[in-house]
Fold this protein.
Amino acid sequence: MPSSDSKTCAFCSKDGASRLCVGCNGAPDPTSTGLIKTLYCDAFCQKAHWNTHKIACKAHRARRILYRLGETAQMAFYIFRENAYDQNIERVEIKENSLLLHEGYYDDGRILFPFPHHLLRDEQDKQAALTFLTCGDAIAHMHELFSIMLKGTCPDVVEVLVRPQPPKRPMQTVRPDGPNRGNDCPHVILMVTLKDGEMYAVDVTGAQYGYYDSVYPWDQYLQTRVQTSGQEVSFRSFGSLKTKYHGAVWCATPGYKGAVRTAHREFATTFDRAVDEWQGKGVKVVEMLRMGAEAFVRARGELMGCVAGALQEFKRGFDGRNMVGGFSG
Ligand SMILES: [Zn+2]
Ligand SMILES: [Zn+2]
C-alpha cells in the first residue's frame, strides 16, 4: 500500500505519479494514521492496474463512507443535544484534569435549558458536556439517520453495550449539595462490519471520556476503551434502543424524567422529519456520503443547517408549552 506522501505509480512503480484514483482518495488507511492516496502516471497505468486495484479501492471507499457516516451522525447529535439540552449548568470548573459541571436546581418546572455556550469556550469541553451520559440517546434518537446512511454500505450493524475503561478525561456533574454523577456507567456504541470483513466501533458520544473521533477500528477500540474483565460486552439488534427510548413505557415514567424523555422523543421526530424534507429537495443522504470531498462537505453543511433550523423552531414552540402540568413529581 502506498504511503500518503509517496508519489509512486501504483502500477509501474515510477516516481512522479500525479493522477489520483478518486474512487478511494482520502479514505482512512487502516494500516496507519494516514489517508489513502492511490497514484498513477496517467490513464494508461490506472486502467492497467484496475483489475488488481478494484477490490482494495472498493474497501477503501466503504471505509471512507463509514468515517463520513460517523462524523455526520456525531455532528447531527451535537446539534440535537444542544437544542434538547436538559441539564441546568450554572458553572463549569476544571479541577486537575477533570471537567466539573455545576448544576442548579430543577424545581422551577423547566425541562430544557439553554446549552451553556458562554461557560464552555473550549470545543472539546463543549463536546464533553453535550455527550455526558447520552450514549443511549445518541443511538436511539439518531437511529433513522444511522439507518439511512448505513443502507447499502454497512448493513451489518449491532448495538453493543460495553463497560468503558476509566476516562482519559474524567467529568462529573455537581449538585448544590455535592457530587452528582460521574460517567462510570455502561456505554452503548455501534459495531459495524464492512463487506470485506473490517470491523469498526462507531461511538459518537466518546467526548465525555476524552475521545473526540467517532469511528475506530474495532480491535483498537476494545483494547483502549473497554474493560477486559467481567461481562463487558453484550449485543442487541440495531434499533433496540430506539424501540425502548421512544416506547410508551419509557416515556410514561412519572415526573421530570418522563417529561424529559417525552420531550426528547418529540425532538427526535422533528429531527427525522427535517432529514426527510432535506432529502425531498434532491440529494439523498446515502448519495451525499459518496460525493467528492468538497461537494460532501457542502451538502452536509446544508443538511446540518436544515436540521438545526427545524430543531430551533421546534424548541421555540416547545418552550412555551406547559409540560409541567403533565407530571406531579
Ligand atoms: Zn505508472
Ligand atoms: Zn482506488
